[in-house]
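Exercise 7b. C-alpha cells:
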C-alpha cells in the first residue's frame, strides 16, 4: 500500500466506491493489517478516485489513497478537501454506518438527550435563531415551519422526511443516509419532540437500496436501545416517480394513492398526511439540526450570507475534473466550487459541449456567451436568491469557455 504503520484504515463503503471495487480494497487491507484495524465508513468525498481508503496515523495526520490496490496517493490538503466546512457531513467518513456503538462514541443522540430536558419552544427558538432554511428546494425557514406545526390544533401530529432525491447527478441525501443514518434519525427525533409529533416516516426512493438497508438497521438498533424515546419511524419506499419529490405528491404516495400534487393551502403544517398536521423537511435539513442544537443557533447563523445561513452539501458530477461530495458555507462562489475545488472542466468535455450543446433560447450565441456573461455570476456568492437564469447562463458560459485546471491528483 506504500503507507506505513497507520493506527487504522477507514475504507469507504458507500455506493460509488462499492461500484469501483471497495470490497477488494478492503480485503487487501484486512489481509495486510488485520480486520480489527480496518473500518467501513461512509463517503470519503472524492468519489471519482474511488475506491478510497484513509489511513489515520498516531501523530494525527491522515493519508488518503485510491484504487483497488491503493495505487493512487491523494492529497488531503487539496482545496477539494481543505475548503469544505462539514456540518451535515461531520461524521460521514468517520463513523461505521452499521455500528450504533461507534455512532454513540462519536456523539450520536447526545443532543437529542439534552433536548429532552428543554421545553419544546426552546428547541424551536434555537432553530429559528440559526436561520436554517429548508434544503429541499423552496428554502422555507425551518424554524418558522416548526412553529406552524407546533401551533396547529390536533393531538396527533406527524414528521415526514423527504428523501426522494431525484435530480440527475444528485447524491447528497443518499450519502447522508448511507454514511451516517443515525444523524438523520436524531434530527427527526428532535423535530418530533419539538412539535409534539407521535410518529415519523422517511420516504426514500427504491433506487437507493444501500441507504434503505442501513436505515432499516439503524432504526431497529436505535429503537432496541430506547434512543428514539418511543418515536416510531417507518420507511416508505417510492417507486421512482420524480413528482413525488413534491411534498403533497409524496404525502399522497405514503397514503397509498397516486403521487399527484394538490393545490395549497391548506399546507401540510395544517393538514398533511391523512389530514394531520405534518412537518416535512428533507434529509439535509434534518441532518443539520443536531449540530445546531449542540453548538447553538448563533454558531450556525454566523456562517453563510445575510439571507442564507449555514452550509450546503453539493454533489459534483458530470463534466468536471474532481467528482464527489462537498459541503461548503453558503456564500461560496461558483468559481470556487467548480474551478478551485472541482478542478474545472476537462478540455475534452468542454470541446464536446462547444460542439453539441445549444444555449437557452434567451441566451446569446455560444461564440459570444463568455464575453457577455463574463465571470461575474461565477464569482457571486452561492445562495438561494441568486440561483436564477443569469447564474445558470454564466455556468453554461464557463462550460463553453473550455477553461480547465489540471488535476493535482
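Sequence design result:
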Amino acid at each position: 500500500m506504500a503507507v506505513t504503520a497507520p493506527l487504522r484504515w477507514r475504507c469507504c463503503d458507500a455506493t460509488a466506491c462499492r461500484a469501483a471495487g471497495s470490497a477488494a480494497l478492503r480485503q487487501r487491507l484486512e489481509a495486510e493489517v488485520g480486520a480489527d484495524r480496518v473500518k467501513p465508513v461512509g463517503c470519503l468525498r472524492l468519489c471519482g478516485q474511488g475506491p478510497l481508503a484513509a489511513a489515520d496515523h498516531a501523530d494525527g495526520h491522515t493519508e488518503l489513497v485510491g484504487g483497488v490496490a491503493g495505487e493512487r496517493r491523494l492529497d488531503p490538503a487539496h482545496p477539494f478537501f481543505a475548503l469544505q466546512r462539514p456540518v451535515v457531513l461531520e461524521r460521514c467518513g468517520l463513523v461505521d454506518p452499521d455500528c450504533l456503538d461507534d455512532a454513540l462514541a462519536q456523539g450520536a443522540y447526545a443532543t437529542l438527550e439534552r433536548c429532552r430536558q428543554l421545553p419544546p419552544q426552546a428547541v424551536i427558538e434555537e432553530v429559528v435563531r440559526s436561520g436554517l432554511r429548508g434544503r429541499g428546494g423552496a428554502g422555507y425557514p425551518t424554524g418558522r415551519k416548526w412553529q406552524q406545526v407546533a401551533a396547529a390544533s390536533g393531538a396527533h401530529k406527524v414528521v415526514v422526511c423527504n428523501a426522494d432525491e431525484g435530480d440527475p447527478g444528485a447524491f447528497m441525501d443518499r450519502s447522508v443516509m448511507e454514511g451516517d443514518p443515525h444523524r438523520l434519525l436524531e434530527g427527526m427525533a428532535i423535530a418530533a419532540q419539538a412539535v409534539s409529533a407521535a410518529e415519523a416516516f422517511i420516504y426514500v426512493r427504491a433506487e437507493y437500496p444501500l441507504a434503505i438497508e442501513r436505515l432499516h438497521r439503524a432504526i431497529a438498533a436505535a429503537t432496541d436501545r430506547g434512543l428514539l424515546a418511543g418515536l416510531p419511524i417507518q420507511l416508505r419506499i417510492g417507486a421512482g416517480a420524480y413528482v413525488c419529490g413534491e411534498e403533497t405528491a409524496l404525502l399522497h404516495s405514503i397514503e397509498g394513492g397516486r403521487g399527484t400534487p394538490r393545490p395549497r393551502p391548506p399546507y401540510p403544517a395544517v393538514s398533511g398526511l391523512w389530514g394531520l398536521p405534518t412537518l416535512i423537511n428533507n434529509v439535509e435539513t434534518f441532518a443539520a439540526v443536531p449540530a445546531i442544537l449542540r453548538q447553538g443557533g448563533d454558531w450556525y447563523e454566523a456562517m453563510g450570507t445575510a439571507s442564507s445561513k449555514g452550509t450546503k452539501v453539493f454533489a459534483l458530477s458530470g463534466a468536471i475534473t474532481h467528482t464527489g461530495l462537498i459541503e461548503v458555507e453558503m456564500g461560496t462562489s461558483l468559481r470556487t466550487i467548480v474551478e478551485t475545488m472541482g478542478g474545472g472542466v476537462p478540455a475534452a468535455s468542454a470541446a464536446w459541449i462547444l460542439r453539441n450543446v445549444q444555449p437557452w433560447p434567451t441566451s446569446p450565441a455560444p461564440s459570444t456567451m463568455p464575453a457577455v456573461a463574463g465571470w461575474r455570476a461565477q464569482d457571486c456568492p452561492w445562495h438561494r436568491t441568486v440561483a436564477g437564469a443569469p447564474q445558470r447562463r454564466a455556468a453554461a458560459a464557463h462550460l463553453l469557455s473550455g477553461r480547465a485546471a489540471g488535476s493535482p491528483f
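Instructor comment: The chain has three domains: 8-76, 100-301, 311-401. DSSP finds 18 helices and eleven strands in the chain.
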